[in-house]
Amino acid sequence: MILDTLQNLLNQTGFMNLEWGNYVMILVALVFLYLAIGKGFEPLLLVPISFGMLLVNLFPDIMQSIADAKAAGNAAAGLFHYFYLLDEWSILPSLIFLGVGAMTDFGPLIANPKSFLLGAAAQIGIFSAYFLAILMGFNGKAAAAISIIGGADGPTSIFLAGKLGQTNLMGPIAVAAYSYMSLVPIIQPPIMRLLTTKKERAIKMEQLRPVSKLEKILFPVVVTIVVVLILPTTAPLVGMLMLGNLFKESGVVKQLSETASNALMYIVVILLGTSVGATTSAANFLNWSTLKIVALGLVAFAVGTAAGVLFGKIMCKVTHGKVNPLIGSAGVSAVPMAARVSQKVGAETDPTNFLLMHAMGPNVAGVIGTAVVAGTFMAIFGVGI
User: Fold this and answer.
1) pLDDT, tens digit, 9 for 90 and up, residues 289-324
2) Are 29 and 51 in contact (CB under 8 A)?
3) Which residue from 141, 17, 93 is spatially nearest to 268, judged by alpha carbons?
4) What does the pLDDT look like over 105-134, one tens digit per residue?
5) Residue 384 burial by Cβ neighbours in a 10 Å radius (0-12, 13-18, 19+)
6) What angle do CA 177, 242, 384 make, to 5 degrees?
7) pTM for this structure?
8) Pure H helices in 148-287
């Protein structure tokens, strides 16, 4: 009996049940943890994602589905499976947009509406990756879900993958999107320096005009009406983004604004991050499709950055040197990291150059633009809200 008991205990340990792929993913999780904690790369995102990745490869059943649990004679599915259902149902991505809206100042975009053009230009990366994904053998819906990584917007990537029925690809897509969001300070600067001259990087932009309280209150209402009437499929993301911003700017629901931007936001980040990380089991992640998704995401993000900078150069020419092309790189929707990178690269050329607020305009426009592109794909494929 003693030997049988010890044998049963040994058979239940991870050492007897894990495969080599699990150990590879455990190593990847530890690298992500180092980047998050040691290097400070978006720790609010990478810490829960990497820990979810660690847990699912130590104990794969933590993501066991309800059907698999019943087949195995268990009373309930794995803990992270229930978290993951909130991703599939688009609940967590929409709540993230609510929190982002409550934390974001749309003033720079209102003060300089031309920023919308830079945000739109950066979406070119998404469409380039879409056609490239089709050439690489993905079907239309899978290509659309993968290409949205180019917006550097994790919640939108998860939302679109779920809506298009690409839940089998949601893990690699989400991890790639959040990874590139975290690596914005590494990926973007070389592209920005390559495509601009020192003279262009040193351009100082005029101070933005003051934006009235009325403008800030009307903006989320008007944008919601216009965008949702034109493209109803954007309602969940654009609507929640603008609702959160209306909480912030109205000034009459301070408690709701504080809850959306703090407590609720951080709770959702924990659930979203750990569930996304938990989709990266070795069985799901270590395959050629995942490698192609990661590569396509990088192409989309790089092309989006380049397109924003190049359009910034066009605006610089048209305005006779009044627009610094660096702010175009912020057209991807990694708020506010991309805007900070624009500021950093500009300050390298001239420490007295302050581009942050100018870059926030395209950055916010990029958030709206990526949501609109996601809604466009949903409309193309006839997917309802």
Assistant:
1) 888 999 999 999 999 999 999 999 999 999 999 999
2) yes
3) 93
4) 999 999 999 999 999 999 999 999 999 999
5) exposed
6) 65
7) 0.89
8) 154-163, 170-182, 184-195, 198-201, 213-230, 235-250, 254-261, 263-277, 282-285
